[in-house]
Write a structure and sequence with these properties.
Elements (H helix, E strand, L loop, with lengths): L5 E4 L4 H5 L2 H10 L5 E5 L1 H7 L7 E4 L9 H12 L3 E4 L4 H9 L7 E4 L6 E2 L10 H10 L27 E5 L13 H13 L3 E4 L6 H10 L4 E2 L6 H10 L3 E4 L2 H8 L4 E5 L5 H4 L6 E5 L8 H14 L8
Parallel strand pairs: 1-2, 1-4, 2-3, 4-5, 5-6, 7-8, 7-10, 8-9, 10-11, 11-12
Helix pairs in contact: 7-8, 9-10
């Protein structure tokens, strides 16, 4: 289907962007001959510019409403004469973008803004999983399904890390203000030792501010490798694609890794609702306790054994 130029809005965060990969691909397939532009924030512009889904990537600096900088964004969108805009952010901010395009005729708008041509108004919307919410929203615009995304474009040369052939990823951190979502680091150290005993080298990934977590893990399991603070997003995806398994908290890197279809075990607390955001796929599992410190190491070990035995890594891979 071709309407003319298309704009897709998705601003962040990493986990939400990763879970929108399938929607991006579905939009591209539905509008195969159209020019498609992505409006996103700086961290994701570099990530998604090489993808086959968008012809251009625009950066939204997200200026506050009282700053005149938003007028430049309004003028740019209006000048592009988009035939349809897919708002995959669906926040009060992106709803406001719909309003700011007035007065006068606006493009077709697929989102939640009052007055949108394709408005998703399901009263259960906030109870839906991210995948289901995006699927229902795109269905309003004639996109019947969202298949698993082909991420073959999202790759990187990992030779500089000198990793062995068999390794597993550990993601023991979260964003600094969500430390309550972290499974205790000594527990991750025990899992590192378990992987090492199975002949799988533990590789710790995360931000540079999580090097202390990696150091604590390596104090117990010296065979573990510390890549915290050293990987780009494409490298993280490439690591996920090649890993035997990934174990970590509910955080952006884990959602990205899950999209590579590697066996993934996400550990969750009451701060996370798996009905909304748990990874999906033939090789994805999650475990949850209200207080994540109460999640036993033995339960995690059993889930790891099951994932490694089933090894669904190749099933449904992109």
């Amino acid at each position: 289907m071709t309407l003319g130029a298309i704009l897709v809005i998705k601003l962040g965060a990493l986990g939400d962007v990763a879970q929108a990969f399938g929607a991006f691909q579905a939009i591209r397939r539905h509008h195969a001959g159209a020019k498609i532009v992505l409006l996103t924030t700086p961290p994701f512009a570099k990530l998604l510019a090489p993808s086959p889904w968008f012809d251009e990537v625009w950066i939204d600096e997200r200026p506050p409403a009282w700053r005149l900088a938003w007028l430049g964004l309004r003028a740019r969108i209006r000048a592009a004469r988009f035939a349809r805009i897919y708002d995959l952010q669906t926040t009060s901010r992106s709803d406001w973008y719909f309003r700011m395009l007035g007065p006068g005729a606006r493009p077709e708008w697929v989102g939640t803004a009052p007055g949108a041509s394709h408005r998703h108004v399901d009263p259960r919307r906030d109870l839906l999983h991210n995948y289901d919410r995006l699927g229902a929203q795109l269905a309003l615009a004639g996109i019947a399904s969202i298949p698993p995304p082909d991420l073959s474009w999202l790759d990187a040369d990992l030779s500089r890390f000198g990793l062995p052939a068999h390794f597993g990823l550990l993601v023991p951190g979260t964003s600094a203000h969500r430390a309550i979502k972290r499974w205790p680091t000594p527990n991750f150290a025990a899992i590192a030792a378990l992987l090492d005993a199975r002949g799988i080298t533990p590789v710790v990934v995360g931000g540079g501010d999580e090097r202390d977590l990696a150091a604590a893990i390596r104090a117990v399991c010296p065979a573990a490798r510390d890549l915290t603070g050293t990987t780009s997003i494409p490298e993280l995806a490439a690591l996920g694609r090649k890993a035997a398994i990934a174990i970590g908290n509910d955080t952006g890197p884990m959602h990205l890794i899950a999209e590579t279809r590697t066996p993934t075990l996400m550990l969750m607390s009451r701060e996370s609702n798996p009905a909304h955001c748990a990874p999906r796929g033939p090789a994805a599992r999650w475990l949850r306790r209200d207080f994540i410190k109460d999640l036993p190491v033995a339960d995690v070990e059993a889930a790891i054994a099951e994932l490694l035995a089933n090894d669904g890594k190749k099933e449904g891979s992109g």
